[in-house]
Amino acid sequence: MEPKDSPIPRWSLGSGSGLHYGSFVNSLSSLTPKAEQTEEPAISQRRSYIAVAVLCYINLLNYTERYTIAGVLPDIQQFFRINDGTAALIQTVFICSFLLLAPFFGYLGDRYNRKYIMIGGLIVWLVTAAGSSFVTES
C-alpha cells in the first residue's frame, strides 16, 4: 500500500474524465504533497481573451515585420543608391540577428518573467522604429 502523501501522476485521455490534457505530467503540482499545494486565483475569461488577442496581434506584427524589408527593398535601393549585393545584405543581417537572438530570448523567457521581457523588447522595437523615421539620404 502506498503512503498517503505520495504524488499522483496525471494522465491524459482527452475525454470528460476529469484528467488533464497532456501525457504523463511531471509538473511541480503533481510532485508536491497536497498539504503544501496552494490554490492559484482564477483568471477571468475576459482577461484571458484580452491576453490572447494582444499576443496574437504582437505575433502578427512580428511576422509582418520580417517581410517588410523584402517588400520595400527596391525603394530602399533607390533611396540610398545601393547595389543589389548591399541591399541583400540588409535582409541577411536582419534574419541572422533574429536567428541568433531568438534562442537567447527563449532561454530568458523560460527563466524570467516573460511580461517584462516582452515589454523590454517592445520598447526597443518602438524606439528603433521611431528612430528609423529620422534616417535621411547619405
From TrEMBL:
Gene Ontology cellular component terms for the protein in this record: membrane
Q: Which InterPro entries match?
A: MFS, MFS_dom, MFS_spinster-like, MFS_trans_sf
Q: Where is it chiefly localized? A: membrane
Spell out the subcellular localization from the entry: Membrane
Sorted keywords for this record are:
Membrane, Transmembrane, Transmembrane helix, Transport
PROSITE patterns annotated for this entry? Answer: MFS
Its transmembrane ranges are 88-109, 116-135
Record domain Major facilitator superfamily (MFS) profile: where: 51-138
Topology with respect to the bilayer: Multi-pass membrane protein
Q: Which GO terms describe its molecular function?
A: transmembrane transporter activity
Which family is this sequence assigned to?
Belongs to the major facilitator superfamily. Spinster (TC 2.A.1.49) family.
Q: What is this protein called?
A: Protein spinster homolog 3-like
Q: Which gene encodes it?
A: LOC104943071
